[in-house]
């Protein structure tokens, strides 16, 4: 009797023993019927140990005898040819010649329906050896569906940092603005979220690099300006949809406001500290008014002038003019100081004269004599020669002359007495 089919090759009998144990094996014969043979052609399921309708000798049709490695008439291997366990990775059916398994055999699908070429409900697509459900269908659709659900669920949850806000669009149209934190939206592609940093300041340098930015002042002079613009987003909806390019708009508006403010001040004010502060404040207010009129959603935080210099081609001449102006300012300051000193001295003398005049009105003679003596003392004290009338001349020592000689030659001091003047000039 025929046993159940072994997954490792030839069938086994009811005792569970293989066809190579001497009890015979079942193989298809030339006519499609079962043929049983032992190791040497002696084993059989028939009563006489031979296959039904045959004998050990040659069959009437001229076929070769079966046994001892002989081949069948159709060219297939003999029934008693030694065989090992069948490769479990090969498709079921007729037993091919034994050979070693290759990598292609390992990954080749065993079920013809899964190759995409056979009939039935196979999915195909070249996914070998995937696990099956209890009803025989594949787990692949359920896995794909679960992955899609997870992705859709993740697209519904959005986490924003404290400095961020998000613009929610529904089918490409603006819906709302969400703040920082965790927010829920409808899954993609129904709603999408575009995150933007609205707390940090953006800093734009005008002009870029070392390029010149010449502007005209109120006194018809050119000044090369370089300045910074600090701004941030105060309304994300307007910032996202009101302007085509908000960053370029901020730069252009700031430059227009700077030119308008510089045109109202002189070159000196534009280059001085106090003048710069006024210009920066004016530019900030002008820029903010224009951007608010555009509804840009931008807040200007500050304007800072980094450089205010003359044009590079006229810088040498400008430096000379500055030096001349500084020298002129210095001379004017010295002249003002001298004039103030002279005026103060004159005012002091006038005040003194007024006091003397008050005393003179009280005692004219006494005041007049005192003024005479003070004047003669102040004049004569600075002279070495005294001219007097002869009758009043008396001998005297030339003390001033002796003093000068002592200072010029301390070791050679000679004292000479002048002759006494005689009466009558003799």
Describe it for me?
It contains nine helices and eleven strands. It is an alpha+beta fold. A hairpin with a 2-residue loop joins strand 4 and strand 5. Helix 4 packs across helix 6 and helix 7 crosses helix 8. The longest helix has 48 residues. The N and C termini lie far apart (195 Å).
Describe the secondary structure blueprint for this structure.
Elements lengths: L24 E4 L5 E4 L65 H5 L32 H15 L2 E4 L3 E7 L2 E6 L2 E4 L6 E7 L4 E5 L7 E3 L5 E12 L2 H6 L4 H17 L4 H5 L1 H22 L3 E12 L5 H48 L1 H17 L18 H10 L18
Antiparallel strand pairs: 1-2, 3-6, 4-5, 4-7, 8-10, 9-10, 10-11
Helix pairs in contact: 4-6, 7-8
Identify the notable features of this structure and list them briefly.
426 residues, alpha+beta, 4-stranded antiparallel beta sheet, 3-stranded antiparallel beta sheet, 9 helices, 11 strands, rod-shaped, disordered C terminus
Largest sheet: 4 strands, antiparallel
The helix count comes to 9
In quaternary terms, these chains amount to single chain
Low-confidence sequence ranges: 9-75, 114-127, 415-426
CA-based gyration radius: 63 Å
β content, as a range? 15-25%
How many beta-strand segments? Answer: 11
Q: H/E series, N to C?
A: EEHHEEEEEEEEHHHHEHHH
Overall pLDDT: 74
| Structural class based on helices, strands and sheet pairing | alpha+beta
Helix content: 25-40%
Terminal Cα separation, in Å? 195 Å
Taken from the alpha-carbon principal axes, the silhouette is rod-shaped
């Amino acid at each position: 009797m025929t046993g159940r089919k072994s997954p490792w090759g030839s069938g086994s009998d009811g005792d569970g023993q293989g066809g190579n144990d001497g009890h015979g094996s079942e193989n298809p014969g030339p006519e499609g019927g079962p043929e049983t043979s032992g190791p040497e052609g002696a084993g059989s399921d028939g009563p006489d140990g031979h296959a039904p309708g045959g004998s050990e000798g040659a069959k009437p049709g001229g076929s070769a005898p079966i046994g001892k490695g002989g081949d069948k008439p159709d060219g297939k291997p003999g029934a008693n040819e030694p065989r090992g366990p069948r490769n479990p990775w090969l498709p079921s059916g007729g037993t091919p010649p034994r050979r070693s398994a290759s990598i292609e055999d390992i990954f080749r699908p065993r079920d013809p329906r899964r190759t995409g070429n056979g009939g039935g409900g196979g999915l195909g697509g070249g996914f070998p050896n995937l696990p099956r459900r209890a009803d025989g269908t594949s787990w692949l659709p359920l896995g794909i569906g679960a992955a899609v659900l997870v992705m859709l669920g993740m697209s519904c949850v959005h986490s924003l940092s404290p400095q961020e806000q998000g613009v929610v669009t529904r089918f490409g149209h603006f819906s709302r603005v969400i703040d920082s934190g965790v927010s829920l939206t409808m899954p993609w592609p129904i709603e999408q979220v575009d995150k933007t940093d609205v707390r940090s300041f953006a800093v734009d340098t005008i002009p870029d690099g070392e390029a010149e930015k010449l502007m005209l002042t109120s006194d018809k002079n050119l000044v090369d300006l370089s300045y910074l613009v600090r701004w941030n987003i105060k309304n994300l909806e307007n910032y996202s949809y009101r302007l085509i390019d908000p960053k370029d708009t901020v730069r252009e508006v700031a430059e227009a406001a700077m030119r308008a403010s510089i045109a109202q001040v002189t070159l000196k004010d534009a280059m001085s500290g106090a003048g710069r502060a006024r210009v920066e404040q004016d530019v900030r207010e002008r820029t903010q008014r224009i951007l608010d009129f555009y509804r840009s959603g931008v807040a200007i935080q500050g304007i800072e002038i980094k450089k205010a210099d003359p044009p590079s081609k006229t810088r040498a001449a400008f430096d000379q003019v500055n030096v001349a102006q500084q020298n002129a300012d210095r001379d004017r300051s010295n002249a003002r100081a001298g004039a103030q000193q002279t005026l103060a001295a004159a005012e002091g003398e006038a005040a003194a004269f007024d006091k003397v005049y008050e005393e003179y009105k009280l005692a004219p003679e006494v005041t007049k004599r005192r003024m005479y003596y003070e004047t003669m003392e102040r004049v004569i004290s600075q002279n070495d020669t005294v001219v007097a009338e002869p009758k009043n001349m008396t001998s005297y020592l030339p003390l001033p002359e002796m003093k000068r000689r002592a200072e010029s030659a301390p070791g050679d001091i000679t004292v000479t007495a002048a002759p006494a003047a005689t009466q009558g000039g003799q």
